[in-house]
Amino acid sequence: MRLWRLLWLLAAVAADEHLRDLEISEGVPVGTRVGFIGDGFVGDSGPPYLIVPVPGSAVDTDLSIEQNTGEIRTKVPLDRETRSSYSLVAIPLSGENVRVVVRVIDENDNAPTFPSPFMSRV
Question: Which residues does the UniProt record annotate as the domain Cadherin (predicted)?
Answer without folding.
Answer: 49-114
